Amino acid sequence: MAMSQGPAPRAGPEDGVGEASSPAHSIDPADQLARLGRSWVWLLGAATVTLVPGILALVWPDVTLHVLAVLIGVYLLLTGAFRFVAVFGRDSDRVPGLIVAVLFVLGGVLCLRNPLQTIAALSLITGAVWLVSGIVTLYTAIATKDMPHRGIVMGVAALGIVAGIVVLALPAESARALTRLLGLWLVLLGLAETAVALAWRSALRRAGITGRDTSGQAT
Fold first, then answer.
1. What is the dihedral of CA 27, 200, 72, 112, to 10 degrees?
2. Are 106 and 126 in contact (CB under 8 A)?
3. How many other CB atoms sit within 10 Å of the CB of residue 57?
4. Cα–Cα distances in Å, from 30 out to 88, 93, 94, 105, 164?
5. In sequence order, what E strands does the chain have?
6. Which residues does 143 contact at the CB level (< 8 Å), separation at least 6?
7. Which residue ranges are recorded for the region named Disordered (predicted)?
8. What is the pLDDT of residues 65-96, one digit of tens each?
9. Residue 41 CB: number of other CB atoms within 10 A?
10. Count of C-beta atoms within a 10 Å radius of residue 136
11. Nearest alpha-carbon partner for 84 in 139, 143, 17, 30
12. Is 107 exposed, middle or buried (0-12, 13-18, 19+ CB in 10 A)?
């Protein structure tokens, strides 16, 4: 989520072992993932993955616990995938971002592994993921002093921490109550992440960088 100076350009064919190796450099998966993770559109996609399930939960409060577990599980898996790609766009320490990505994927797998689990278990998984990811993101924002839009990122992290605490401290007694609670926080987090994506787009435009040319920036 944080932005910093991107990696230096790779060496050309003359700096390699021969022309046969140049195609491999041009399609390096790490470079491709880094370019994708630096895009503000990618950040907006991650925000959408959070916002859409929240809206569905609010407009469909009578969903069964089974469907809610699947909905939350898919949200966690997709968010983990988005965050994993975003890690490649960083020049700074990638470990915190990787931990958060793995945490989201693990939470998604646990939700989908047993969709008929109890309300308390679903609340525990979601709340723990939000709380830990919020703490890690807040730490990263505080430690990275040159992070663009640092205040917004810290605000999103704080919102995630509060969401995790609320879900863990106020367990819902019914699937309907849990659906409304999770839906509300998903919408709030999705809107906050949308603000981060739009702020990053604004920063790219001020720097004269288009959406297709973000090779000088990192997420």
1. 20
2. no
3. 25
4. 7, 16, 13, 20, 32
5. 4-5, 217-218
6. none
7. 1-25
8. 888 889 999 999 999 999 888 887 666 677 88
9. 14
10. 18
11. 30
12. buried
Q: Letter for the amino acid at 162? A: V
Each residue's pLDDT tens digit, 207-218: 765 544 444 333
Give me the residue label for tokens 């919408």. Answer: 187
DSSP-assigned states of every residue in 169-212: HS--SSHHHHHHHHHHHHHHHHHHHHHHHHHHHHHHHHTT--TT
Residues paired with 152 in a beta bridge: none
DSSP state of 20: G
Tokens of 169: 């401290």
At residue 123, what are phi and psi to the nearest 5 degrees? -65, -40
* Residue that is written with structure tokens 């787009």 in the block: 201
User: 125-170 pLDDT, tens per residue?
Assistant: 999 999 999 999 899 888 888 776 788 889 999 999 999 999 998 8
